[in-house]
Amino acid sequence: MESKVERTAILLAACLLGCTPGCRSLEVGGLDLVTAPVNRSLAVMKSAVSTDTSQHPEAESGPTAVELARFEQATRLTEEGKHGEAETLLVDLKNKGYARFFDFSSRRRKSFVKKIDKDPRLGDTLNPHLLDPGAALREDALFLLAENQFQLKKFAPAQDNFTALMTEFPSTRHIDRATQRLFEIGRYWLDSQHFSAASTIRPAGAIVPAAGSDPSTTQGWLMTMPILPNVTDPTRPLFDTKGRALQALKSIWLNDPTGHLADDALMLSAAIHLEQKNRREADRILTNLRKLYPDSPYLEPAFLLGSHVRLLSYQGSEYDQTPLEESAQLKRSTLGLYPGIKEKSRLETELKDIENARADREWQRVEFYRKKNLPNAMAIHLTQILARFPGTGHAKRAQAMLRQLGPGYANGKWLAQEVQSVGNPLAKPVSTKTPSGSLNEPVDAKAPFPPKS
Fold first, then answer.
1. Burial class for 432, CB neighbours closer than 10 Å (0-12, 13-18, 19+)
2. C-alpha distances in angstroms, 136 versus 63, 68, 91, 422?
């Protein structure tokens, strides 16, 4: 009698616990505490009875019939142009952010790997991570969702989904279409931010969406503020339109470096950074463009803009001369590769300016030693200016200063004496007499060969 009363009390307590607001249902709440041991025992009995190993149990982890039906219906609606209804079928029914109806994340993959560890029949025992029954459906569903959002001009979530597609599935068969959509989205956003470079770089096959940008879009210095929210244009993201556009372009050449839009994305990104006066980032991108894509149609502007950016990064004779040397090398390479370039006269003028800047660096050393009252050191650098930069104005000043130092410095006798005192490495070797027939005897090339003995 007492045992029946105790069982009844436990059952009532479980029902009350299941009805509390903190539990989802009776099954999850209270009754599960009672039925769990029974369920476990039934599962053990079922596994003991089922001994058929001919059927591959991977179908349990694959796409369900409901998922397949919803995907086929969404595909039909997309072909009919009903993109809103197709998106509704592809996203989560409860609309909980990124927790979509189709499991696009790696959650299902992780659970499947755990099942493989328990049952080797589920996949390849040598490399079980290669097998994922639901991967194909997730890949197609994710691309279909992003494409419908693009057609609905929901470009911000479309960019997220296209990027997730290329990240989760690096070898996806939708890579060309995804990169094209990302390029169109990025260039559309840059157009809305009034960047002139977005209208000049238009490769074949990529078309900017036809919807015009909001005329009240911020311009000028307000455009550089990523914290300024966008509340007027639903086609743009809420914050940092320019940053999201550059992120979309970066996803192209990171996930598809051999694609037909990779060099276009690099060139457009470099042009945007130049408009924003971010010379360091523009120089880095242009360097990657020259190294990775030597056959690109943007190679000539990459050399030209790269040399210009390097020259602008030079801060003066008091700082490092590496940007000056690299800029000169790029300009000479540009003239060598493209002798008929339109900016030829400009490049030649800039090369002369670089030579003047290099001569100015030597003249700064002359001034330094002049303040230290070291005429010998002054004469060395003055002579270097005359030898390296003969056509500059610093060469005339160097010649005049050598005369001021004295006739010995002007005619070069002092320098010759200094070289001889330390031992001239370029002096001709003194010939030493060696006995006839010795191996060290110099051979006269004009003399006839001696007769054979």
1. exposed
2. 9, 11, 17, 78
Q: Of 165, 159, 306, which Cα lies nearest the Cα of 243? A: 159
Contact of 50 with 119, CB cutoff 8 Å: no
Amino acid at 299: L
Record the tokens describing residue 191, joined without a space: 């157009």
Residues 228, 222 contacting (CB under 8 angstroms): yes
Q: What are 447's two structure tokens?
A: 């003399």
Q: What is the pLDDT of residue 34?
A: 43
In this prediction the pTM is: 0.66
Question: Measured in whole angstroms, how far is the alpha carbon of residue 40 from the centre of its chain?
Answer: 52
- For residue 380, what are its two tokens? 């060395």
Cβ-based neighbours of 97, under 8 Å, separated by 6 or more: none
C-alpha closest to that of 236 among 189, 302, 201: 189
More confident residue, 262 or 442: 262
Q: State the angle between helix axes of 344-371 and 375-388 in degrees (0 to 180), rounded to the nearest 10.
A: 170
Q: Do the Cβ atoms of 341 and 334 come closer than 8 Å?
A: yes
pLDDT in tens, 122-173: 545 444 445 566 778 888 888 999 999 999 999 999 999 999 999 888 888 9
- Pick 54 or 3 by higher pLDDT: 3
Q: Where are the domains of the chain?
A: 1-39, 66-152, 365-421
Q: How far is CA 219 from the centre of its chain?
A: 27
Q: Which two tokens stand for residue 216?
A: 């009240």
- Token readout for 436 is 């006839």
Q: Which run of H or of E encompasses 355?
A: helix 344-371
Burial of 250 (0-12, 13-18, 19+ CB in 10 A): middle
Contacts of 202 (CB under 8 A, 6+ apart): 187, 208
pLDDT score, position 69: 87
Residue pair 282/273 in contact by the 8 Å Cβ criterion: yes
Please, where are the H alpha helices in 101-240?
Answer: 107-118, 135-151, 155-168, 175-192, 197-200
Average pLDDT over residues 181-204: 78
Torsion 134-135-138-140 (CA) sign = negative
Rounded Cα distance between 301 and 112, Å, is: 50
Q: Which one, of 227, 234, 82, 68, lies nearest residue 151 by Cα?
A: 82
**What would the DSSP string read from start to end of 31-89?**
HHHHHHHHHHHHHHHHHHH----SS-GGGGGS--HHHHHHHHHHHHHHHTT-HHHHHHH
Distance CA 247, CA 245 (A): 5
Residue 60, amino acid: E
